[in-house]
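Before relying on records like the one below, remember that each one covers exactly one chain. Contacts with other chains, cofactors or solvent are not represented anywhere in the record.
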Amino acid sequence: MTETGKPPVPPPAPDGVAYPRTVRSFVRRAGRTTTGQAKAFEQLGPRFLLPYQPQPLDFASAFGRDAPTILEIGFGMGEATAHIAALMPQANFLCCEVHQPGVGALLKRIGEQGLANIRIVAHDAVEVLDQMLPEGNLAGVHVFFPDPWHKLRHNKRRLVQPPLIARLASRLKTGGYIHCATDWEPYAQQMLEVLSGEAQLANTAPSYAERPAYRPLTKFENRGLKLGHGVWDLVFRKR
């Protein structure tokens, strides 16, 4: 904790290290960290927060064990992340999110649910992918409800685009998977096109997939479904 009582802000990239990007994995949002989240930062941060570093991550050292590792890009307030980690104790979850209240919320859930298989990097997932994750090491990737950038002129800012998917696929082990989900149909169509166009990947379904049992329906998603909004899941495996 800082002297102001606020959770620490992740340090910037080291001097001399440049990361030119046309797409980032996030948009910074305003938000207030609650007292409970700040307490979680103080008590659980030292164990569950991993510092960003421009060098390959030793998974066994970071998690204290050898286990299949799943990367999650942008977990929001961590509701689905904690649910899935509890359902899959045999897997490690490396989770990237820059929204400080969201990081605090997931740390709080970790403490409340006694989860030991989550580590958080509070940094842009694109840079984490490029600098910290060796090729052929991930068992899976989760990208749930990324910003759809609704306006046509903003579509280029969407996360799921060919260069990123190619890099994600290269980090997967053979048989590893990428699972994307969105509630914006035009983005679902783009995801299907991009994932289908990556030669390293094969669709597990004829088109969109049934929602895997491990992915819960969040309160936001349930509300949308009641209003008649659709949700699309896509699951592709590395050949």
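The mean pLDDT is 89.
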